[in-house]
Design brief:
By secondary structure, this protein is mostly helical. The protein contains 10 helices and 4 strands, in the order ααααββαααααββα. Strands 1-2 form a two-stranded antiparallel sheet. A hairpin with a 6-residue loop joins strand 1 and strand 2. The longest helix is centred in the last third of the chain and has 56 residues. The radius of gyration is 26 Å and the shape is elongated.
């Protein structure tokens, strides 16, 4: 195996490690309660990571065993994957840029307003025909049950940094002025006209605020937070992949030059 092919093989091993990191980010996203209920958002990162793994293996095989067809296929597919990841990154940044959260005085957590998120997220998640299934999925999960297990007193709960999904779905909006009994039971709103969700809150553990606009906003808040974390991994991975691709192109060109020079020497002798 020539020097150029060795370099290409090492670079593909680096790309393979990057694909494993992306697959790990995909599994992390798919394990979250909100992504388990919104199936569309579970798969893009995971699929990109698996495709990158397959392409990296093709490049490694082509370099290690000097299979030119594999190398050409690898370079073509790697270019497509880099473009795909860049498109996914730009799209994710655009749709997750608006933030519907707002601080609440005296609370460790934030409340969430549906209108503060991007119209694309609202249209494709909360305003879609799938919301009924998403709502049932959230209600059947342990998202709210965990709050009753973790927090006993009002002071503990008010100081807690609960997730956007828990803030939006498991309690009424703070502005309603409900009296705390436990994390999922609230009584006697002081200001019931402050928000339309104030009338939708229900102490029935199968209802809570799952019908509230704040629950939809909390779901979008969770998706936004998780995707922005996954974007960090994607940014690092795509920078590495661009460098790997450029160096691999140079290595392949050098390998072709070495092959021509070797044939020239054989013909001369």
């Amino acid at each position: 195996m020539g020097v150029s092919n060795k370099i290409t093989a090492v670079l593909n091993f680096v790309a393979l490690l990057s694909s494993i990191a992306i697959i790990g980010a995909g599994f992390w996203l798919s394990s979250k309660a909100d992504n388990q209920c919104t199936h569309f958002f579970r798969w893009p990162v995971l699929i990109v990571g698996i495709l990158l793994l397959v392409v990296s293996l093709c490049g490694f095989i082509g370099a290690f065993w000097n299979k030119k067809g594999f190398l050409v296929f690898y370079l073509f597919c790697m270019a497509l994957l880099i473009v795909l990841i860049l498109i996914l990154l730009v799209f994710a940044f655009v749709v997750t840029r608006p933030d519907g959260s707002y601080s609440v005085p005296g609370r460790g957590y934030k409340d969430y307003r549906l209108g503060g998120f991007s119209s694309w997220l609202r249209d494709h998640v909360t305003n879609s025909g799938n919301w009924g299934k998403i709502r049932r999925c959230i209600a059947e999960s342990d998202v709210c049950v965990k709050l009753d297990q973790e927090y006993v007193t009002a002071d503990q709960f008010f100081a807690a940094h609960i997730s956007p999904l828990q803030s939006g779905c498991c309690k009424p909006p703070t502005v309603c002025g409900y009296t705390y009994m436990n994390p999922t039971m609230w009584l006697n709103p002081v200001n019931p006209n402050a928000d339309q969700d104030c009338y939708l809150w229900n102490n029935d553990q199968t209802q809570l605020c799952y019908n509230c606009h704040s629950c939809k906003a909390g779901l979008l808040g969770n998706l936004r937070s998780e995707w922005r974390k996954a974007n960090v991994i994607l940014i690092v991975a795509v920078v590495i992949l661009i460098w790997v691709y450029l160096i691999a192109c140079c290595a392949l060109r050098n390998a072709q030059t070495e092959e021509l020079f070797r044939r020239y020497k054989q013909g001369w002798s």
